[in-house]
Amino acid sequence: MRFGRSARAAVIGLALTLGAVACSTGGSTTASAPPSSSAGGLEKTKLKIATLPAIDSAAIYVAIDQKLFEQEGLEVTPQVVQAAPEAIPMMLNGEIDAMFGNYVSMFQAHDKGSLKLRILAEGSRAAPDSLSIMALPNSPIKTPKDLEGKTINVNVLHNFQELALAQVLKANNVDPATIKYVQVTFQNIMPSWQGGQIDAAYLGEPLVTAATSSMGARKILDPASGPAAEFPISGYVGTQEWYDQNPKTAAAFQRAIHNAAKLMENNREVVAKVLPNFTQIDAATAATVTFPYFSSNDNPVRLQRVADWMLEARWLNKGIDVKTLMSATTSG
After folding, report:
1. Which of 151, 173, 226, 280 is the most exposed place for a label (fewest CB within 10 A)?
2. Burial letters for 210-232: b for 16+ Cβ neighbours within 10 Å, e otherwise?
3. Which residue did the predictor score with more confidence, 7 or 291?
4. Pairwise CA distance, residues 95 & 88, whole Å
5. CB of 8 within 8 A of CB of 59?
6. What are phi and psi of 201, to 5 degrees?
């Protein structure tokens, strides 16, 4: 079965929604105006932040578009990278001030001692129906219990997809240890699924809608439900050293990100407007895609789940007290 233009756009949208490895759009975006006079007291006024061409990182682009950084006296230049791990050495070498990335990768780097982490601001959380475990129409998989012993795709092994799903499976009386995960590129999900290499597909919007309408696929389980509701995915992080040297700048950056998220909560148009500027999602797809939740405040309790589940999965050598890594919230 071949997919039309809308389904191909959905494949792109899935990759970007999950913040996975994707091609750069070929350039960075800069603030449209110089910092305002409110910059007094900031240690730095010009920041370079590594981002992914992903919906999850939209807050930084909304903050630029709505001049929220400018109001804080900041000029922020996003630098697009293909995957979050490649930005870590850039940050350690001082090539960038901070980065946007998924918490699992950041906590793993912190645990190994390769990065002394400081969370500057939370970014995105999984929203209902933004992710889905799906089966083909003729599949014997009808219920979550039928997933036991089956093969499911993930974009990266031992990352947030697998971590969240394990908790949801347990909540549905499914033994997560019986699931076989295979790493499949987004371009190969559909061929692998239809060819029988995977039994059920781990999809995100807008590909969920495309698979339902084009293939008659059925939803089996929402990985962002139950214990994984509002599962924290990604955030803005820096090094502890950078934070110690630039506390006022860090607070100003956090306020702008939080204010952008507040604006985005009830106004999806401001998000849809910027997506074509830094992703491969066109305006038509941007108008219909399901967005993640964007965090307008930082919550150590919900973020602690990520570290606790990683320790439970033995992805960490020791526990992490997430609260000690978080910046003080300066916005209301």
Report:
1. 173
2. bbeebbebbebbbbbbeebebbb
3. 291
4. 10
5. no
6. -105, 135
Say what percent of the chain tops pLDDT 90: 64
User: Does the bond joining 206 to the residue before it have cis omega, within 30 degrees of 0?
Assistant: yes
Which one-letter DSSP state was computed for residue 20? -
Give dist(CA 109, CA 268) in Å, integer.
Answer: 33
CA distance 46 to 31: 10
CA 158, 164, 169, 170 torsion: positive or negative?
Answer: positive
User: pLDDT per residue over 108-153, tens digit each?
Assistant: 999 999 899 999 999 999 998 888 999 999 999 999 999 999 999 9
What are the tens digits of pLDDT across the range 279-324?
877 888 788 878 889 999 999 999 999 999 999 999 999 999 999 9
The residues that bridge with 204 in the sheet, in sequence order, are 131
Phi-psi region of 206 (alpha: psi -120 to 50; beta: other; left: phi over 0): alpha
Residue 21 has pLDDT above 90, yes or no: no
What is the average per-residue pLDDT within 267-286? 86
Residue entry with tokens 């900041």: 74
Alpha-carbon distance of 81 to 297, in angstroms, equals 25
* For residue 20, pLDDT beyond 50: no
Query: What do you get for the CA distance between the two ends of the chain, in Å?
Result: 51
Q: Quickly tell me which residue has 């791990």 as its tokens.
A: 85
Token pair for 201 = 């597909």
**Quick one: tokens of 128?**
């209902």
Strand order in the sheet with 232-239: 75-80, 46-51, 98-102, 232-239, 117-125, 293-294
More confident residue, 266 or 83: 266
Predicted TM-score (pTM) of this structure = 0.81
Tokens (6 digits) for 257: 């990100």
Q: Which amino acid, 151?
A: T
Residues 274, 61 contacting (CB under 8 angstroms): yes
**Nearest C-alpha neighbor of 158 from the set 124, 195, 107, 199:** 107
